[in-house]
Each structure stands twice: as structure tokens, then as C-alpha cells.
Automatic annotation (TrEMBL):
(6S)-NADPHX binds at residues 62-66, 129-135, 140, 158, 257, 317, 366, 433. Residues 493-515 are annotated as: Disordered. This is Bifunctional NAD(P)H-hydrate repair enzyme. Its cofactor is K(+); Mg(2+). It catalyses: (6R)-NADPHX = (6S)-NADPHX; (6R)-NADHX = (6S)-NADHX; (6S)-NADPHX + ADP = AMP + phosphate + NADPH + H(+); (6S)-NADHX + ADP = AMP + phosphate + NADH + H(+). Residues 222-489 form the YjeF C-terminal domain. GO terms for biological process: metabolite repair; nicotinamide nucleotide metabolic process. The gene is nnrE. AMP binds at residues 403-407, 432. The keyword Glycosyltransferase does not apply. HAMAP family: NADHX_dehydratase, NADHX_epimerase. In the N-terminal section; belongs to the NnrE/AIBP family.
Amino acid sequence: MRTAYTSDQIRAAEAALMARLPEGTLMQRAAAGLAAVCARLLTDRCGRVYGSRVVVLAGSGDNGGDALYAGARLARRGAAVRAVLAGSRVHREGLAALVRAGGRADPYAADETRRILDRADLVVDGLVGIGGAGALREPYAELADMVNDAPGTIVAVDVPSGVDASTGRVAGAAVRAHVTVTFGAYKTGLLVDPGAEHAGAVEAVDIGLGPYLPDPDVAALTAADVVDLLPRPRAESDKYRRGVVGIAAGSERFTGAAVLAVGGALRGGVGMVRYAGPATPAAYVRSRWPEAVVTPLEHARDITRAGRVQAWVLGPGLGTDDTALELARSVLASDVPVLMDADALTLAAAHRRLLHRDAPVLITPHAGELARLLGVPRERIEAERLEYARAAAAELGVTVLLKGSTTLVAEQHRPVRINTTGTPWLAAAGTGDVLSGLAGALLAGGLSCYDAASCAAYLHGVAGRVAASGAPIAAGDVAEAIPAAVRSLVQQDGVPEPGTTGRPHQVGTPAKLKG
Ligand SMILES: NC(=O)C1=CN([C@@H]2O[C@H](COP(=O)(O)OP(=O)(O)OC[C@H]3O[C@@H](n4cnc5c(N)ncnc54)[C@H](O)[C@@H]3O)[C@@H](O)[C@H]2O)[C@@H](O)CC1
Ligand SMILES: Nc1ncnc2c1ncn2[C@@H]1O[C@H](COP(=O)(O)OP(=O)(O)O)[C@@H](O)[C@H]1O
Ligand SMILES: [K+]
């Protein structure tokens, strides 16, 4: 499990550790780790550190101190290091170390700074770290834009300046790094978009914080975690014991959603998939998936004819008319876990009572669906995804899987689970239907809502990557790639770990080309 923490949690742990160490020890550990990563990146880019050009942007706090000390270490190895002192103050000892090592430092001056940034092989962003609050003030905001246009490799110190370390929120200008070197432990904002997208590849430097860290704020499953959690058939398994998932989806108008949700479920490791829905989507499901057991429904109350299931998926393509509402009520009246997606969420926004039941509920909204459920504008959800995923879990009393470029799984009293395995190629109609089928299958296989949602998000992301491999995909391709995704985890074969190489990223490419 990869764990991450808020700024306050990190500060408290640092204080406890610092009390046992001589002053300055932690900053030296941080700077040494930062300089080592920079040296490696310079060697990749220029062949060696000696003679390379490095620009250090130093703000007025300890983040600037880390950057200046790292700059000193690079200068001692022969790099030409120029520091831009951007704050009203500067970390004096760090500055003195840089100058002693042969580096040069000047106050920020727009034209000169732009000139040296244009020629830099590597830029170290030490403007603000976990002490940053709110939108970057000038001249930092202007500098962040300038850095993003610079051709060199951009390395953020601890967090990219302008990204809220505790939430991933970005209010205004922010540095877009190729690599973020973070100290002691991951910060939550490095895993949640838009912060995660600004961080690039994240490298953690151990400064000895481990024993002082509290329970994490958020967590991300690794490939090994998913392998451990996935239900696996044994010698005594049969199709019923492996779990049966029911799919209540599709309508006369929306037939594809039913086909795709069943497709995701069939690859999710259950023993059987039952489909129940109107005659037209039922016919499509039957012809596309002979493996599914199909019950065409004339009336919603006929849902019991579909047979016993261990979990239901409700909503993709269901429509929002009275027939759909009646079907939703019938499914929710059962005593098994229900995953609610798409139109079921639109219905729930109008009929909140649908969410009140004794058995578990997992909802899988995108930002627009959650906006309707909570009655807040979509843009606010997108800007504060972590806060709203948590708020929804608390307010609605359900498990929430909030879809997007990073997917969040929130449940009351548990750390939010973050998934970054996906790819922007997944932004295609119908991929969400595949996800709901897959997550429903894992629920039926016996996983809790929290585990089913986070494993499904992980696998769906990897399946998207496997299917796409850099080319456009259709939702059906994602369903078909699920077995290959599982296999790649089991073989530990090139599976990107969340928050490290989990997103398309190449050191040395201009930040604006990322993603
Ligand atoms: N505390 C520790 O033990 C360690 C801290 N380290 C470094 O120290 C950093 C935290 O240092 P600080 O607490 O000094 O804080 P920072 O250096 O992150 O930021 C605080 C400074 O930035 C300014 N600032 C804050 N928000 C701003 C905004 N929106 N626009 C412009 N300026 C803004 C503040 O006025 C203050 O001068 C960490 O991120 C890490 O890099 C590391 O050296 C490891 C050890
Ligand atoms: N930019 C992105 N990067 C990675 N994954 C994405 C991105 N945009 C969307 N996705 C994923 O694609 C899926 C889209 O689901 P959804 O919005 O429900 O679409 P649909 O309703 O058409 O199936 C979700 O799993 C979501 O997390
Ligand atoms: K920074």
C-alpha cells in the first residue's frame, strides 16, 4: 500500500523526529536525496553533471533552503548553478553553502531569469513546499509560468509550487514538474488531480520519518495489494460459490450500456452473470454474450425471476422514466450489495430515499453525477475532488467511487483510496459501464464495497493502458483487456505503480506535452 499524508501530519512527524536530531540534519538528508535525483537526471540528459546548467528557484522558506543546499551539492560536482532568489527573504545558510560551492545567486529579475531558464538543462523548483497556502502570489505565479515554458527538465522540491500539498488543489498558476522529489512520505496532493498531474513522476526520499507517521490520510493500492485482494477460484469452487452478479441496466433507447456492463462483469472473476432488463437490450446482451443468463423483464416486479445474486449493478443506460424508477426500487429492495451508476444516480438525485437501505451501497459517479447528487456545481467537484468524495460518503452514508483522471474511493472512517493507473484514453463513452460491471463482479465475489471499488478502479486503469498502448480504444476493448491486466499484475510484468510511473510521462519532454 502506498500511503500519503497531509502537510499537518508531515509537520507533526517532522517535529517529533527533529527533536531527536541535531539541527539541520533533516534538511541535509532532504538536500542530499534531491541532489542525487538531479544528478541522475542531468546524467541522463547531458551525459554528466560536470558542465551542465542548473537554475535553482529559491523561495523564502525551508523549501528554498532544500533547493539551495542541493544546488550547492551539484555545484561541487561541476554544474554551473544559478539561483534565483524570488522571496522577500532567503534561507541564509543554504545561500551561503551555494556561494561557497561556486554557485551564483541573484534576486529575481524577469528578463534575466527568463534568459537563464531558456538555457537551463535542469530547473529546481524550491519556491514553496508544504508551507504554501492559497494561490501563488507574485512574483511566484509569473515564475511558475516561465518555468513551465522552459525547455529543461523540471524538478519540484517536495511538491510542485502552487499545488496544495494536502489536497492536490491548484488555485492559479502552478509548476508542472517532470519529477517531484518528496521528503519523508508522499503528500496527498501528489496523488490527487490536478496536483498529481502537476507532479509528474514522484520519487520519495527517506529522511527517517517512518516511525513518526500517523495513520495515513489517503492510500493507493499497489499491484501486490490488488493481487492479494482479488477473489481466486479454488479446487472446491463452483460457479455459485464464486459469486453471481446481477446486472440491471439498459433500456429500449440505451442498449450498449447493458452490453458493456455485462462485458465488464464477465471478466471480473464471478461464476455467473445474470442480466435482467427490457426486451431489446436483453436481446443484444444475449446475442453478444452467450455466457450471460438473460431474463427479459416486462415489469419491474419480475426482477425476482432473474434468480439469486450476491450483488447487483444498477443503472447504466437504464433511463430515468417511471419504469426505470420502479426497477431501481425493486433492485434496491433486495438484501444484497448494490452498485449504483449512471441513471441510477440521476434517479437518486431526485429521490434521495433510494440510497437508504440496510445492505451496502456503492455509488460510482463522475463529477457531473456527483454534482447532481450533492447539489453543487460540477466545477467545484472537479476542483476539490478529494473533499467532495469524502463529503459524499459522509452525507449519503454510502461508499463513493468518484471517477476521473484519478479515481477516488471514499468511505466513512477509512483513508480515501486513490487510483492513478488509468490513462486519458479511457475518456471514451461506455468505459464507465465496463467499470461498473467489473466492480459489481468483485462485490459479488465477496469483496467489501471499499475493496471492490478500489480493485476495480486499479484493474480498469491497467486494462485501459493494456488496451490502448498509445492508440485510441473503444469501451469494449477495455473489457476484453481485463484478463491481460490481471495477468500483468500476477506476473508483476511492467505494472506501473500508482504515483510513480503510473501516468504517461517522459523526463525531458516539455511539460505541456505531458499526458
Ligand atoms: N520541517 C522539516 O523538518 C523539513 C522541511 N523540509 C522542507 O521545508 C519545506 C517546508 O518549509 P516551510 O515551512 O519553511 O514552508 P515553505 O518553504 O514550503 O513555504 C513557506 C514560505 O512560502 C511563502 N508562501 C506560502 N504560500 C505562498 C503563496 N501562495 N505564494 C507565495 N509565497 C507563499 C511563505 O510566506 C513562506 O515564506 C518542506 O516542503 C520541505 O521542502 C525539508 O528540508 C525536510 C525537513
Ligand atoms: N482523463 C482521464 N484519465 C484517466 N481516466 C479517465 C479520464 N477521463 C475519464 N476516465 C475514466 O474513464 C471512465 C469514464 O466513465 P464515465 O464518465 O462513466 O463514462 P461512460 O458513462 O460513458 O461510461 C471512468 O472510469 C474514468 O475514471
Ligand atoms: K516546490
